[in-house]
Amino acid sequence: MIGNVYSTICPGCNFGCGLYIRENGELEVDFRKSSPANAGKLCRFGMSLPRFYTPARSIVDGRETTLDEAAKEAAKRISSTKGSVAFLSLGNTTCEEHLAFQKLAESFGSLYTGVELGALPGDVHQTLSVGIPYSEIEAAKHIVLFIDPYEQYPLIVRRLLLAKKKGAKITSIWWKDMPLADENLRPADTSKLQLTGDSLIIADFHPLSDTEQVKSLLALAKNAGAKITFLKPFVNSTGAYILSMDAKQKSLAQLIEDINKGTIKTLFCLESDILELMPEAIAKLTNLIVQTGQESAITKKAHIVIAHEPLYKKRGTLINNEGRAQAPGGAGTGGLEALGTIAGTKFDFDSLHESVKKMIGITAVDEFTVPAYERPTYAAPRATAKPPDAKILLASVYNPFMWSGLADDNDFVELSLNMVRALKLLKGGTVKINYNGSLLEKKFKVAPVQDNVLLTGKRIGIEKGAITPVEVSR
Ligand code: SF4
Question: Which domain of life is it from (predicted)?
């Protein structure tokens, strides 16, 4: 930090884009051209950070209070519900805070990072946790995309175009044609894919990933001798997954089941807005405790909010998708202090930082170097993914706006011209979407989408995971 300017990392996804944030009465975003992950470029979400960073206030049962009071009240409620407390940290905070939180979870309840690592064979955990350097994407001869790069991880588009310029062929396996792809296949046509040892598969791994689909992608790469890399949605997903790889943890689906059964009564979310992921389960909690640096949909529902500095003011370490160690930009340790109050101990930043470096396998936080990570071989997992059998599908394209619950102006569904004609939809009009009796009317946009699919980059409230069977009408 120099003056009122913080050199920081965008919290929108794990791509690790660097930028400057200037506190000038209001927040301003500036481009940081020296940033190795993005060379200064930012996507729509990165440019929206002044909206994202709305400061949070500490609250207990609707009453505004101090951070210390909120942390003490959280400590009381966690102790009184010991045995039925769950701790969730998706990877939106520093490694040091995540590690302190993990220690707290070990003494009181169960830790969740949101992903189902435990449901996947141990020999694939490292492959899922740490991606390959972006320079390897640029150098690949054949890239196979199982993501929508424009919508989900926008700064990867630059790397893909550079690879293409060097002669790479790009195959996209998606519900809609990708302008940069040389070959567009649909998810049901994966068997037509021609992979070789020169191919690189790019997919993503997140709390709503279908485990069988992840296994089948790993097997696809393994059987062809191809490389595979997984992108991730939270600023420190990679750090959180590495630090928690050996921690006892359950899946998000298990957490929802435990809340519904009443075996989890208190949920403590560290920088994790999961309102989008489990809206019904959250309403059943006796205590929802949220520790965060900014206001979001979940702070409005929480019984206790422990509010401290936002990410760009924190001291600590972030690990981006390539495994690059980055600093969030500030000197604040308010989050660690709050966790110490709750744990009844003091978390020392320096000793946590040393542990983090050891566990990650780095000696310094140097964003200009990609450390050498072990890339162990793995056995091809057996997968039993089966295609959905519904006639019309609503496919959610998870993107930074959706994960962080930030309002996005792109409020429409995409569908094909054939669907528009079949339903006799009117230009500039809407389409009606029906799921189990819930009826919604949405604006639509015509795009080269598979004929039985509606794509949405915004949660519309009827989703049941990444794919929801629906009925549509005019
Ligand atoms: S690609 Fe990800 S990290 Fe980069 S600006 Fe967009 S949301 Fe932020």
Answer: Archaea
Confidence of residue 388 (pLDDT cuts 50, 70, 90): low
Q: Which CATH architecture has domain 55-385?
A: 3-Layer(aba) Sandwich (3.40)
How far is the centre of ligand 1, averaged over its atoms, from the C-alpha of 256 (Å)? 29
CB distance 144 to ligand 1 below 6 Å:
no
Residue 267's closest CA among 90, 402, 93, 115? Answer: 90
Ligand 1 close to Cβ of residue 153 (< 6 A): yes
**Inter-residue contact 167 to 142 (CB < 8 Å):** no
Distance CA 330, CA 352 (A): 17
The CATH number assigned to the domain with range 392-473 reads 2.40.40.20
Q: Show me where the domains of the chain are located.
A: 5-47, 55-385, 392-473
The fraction of the chain above a pLDDT of 70, given in percent, is 99
Cα(192) to centroid(ligand 1), Å = 32
pLDDT at 113 (0 to 100): 81
- C-alpha 203/C-alpha 85 separation (Å) is 33
For 218-258, strand residue ranges (E) read 227-231
Q: What is the reported pLDDT for 1?
A: 67
* pLDDT greater than 80 at residue 277: no
The 10s digit of each residue's pLDDT in 58-109 is 999 999 999 999 999 999 999 998 889 999 999 999 999 999 999 999 888 7
How big is the CA angle at 400 (ends 148 and 87), to the nearest 5 degrees? 120
Centre of ligand 1 from the C-alpha of residue 274, in Å: 20
CA distance 439 to 460: 11
* CA atoms within 13 A of residue 469's CA, in its CB half-sphere: 6
Amino acid at 189: D
- How many whole angstroms from 234 Cα to the centroid of ligand 1? 10
- Tell me: pLDDT of 385 over 80: no
Q: Is the CB of 149 under 6 A from ligand 1?
A: no
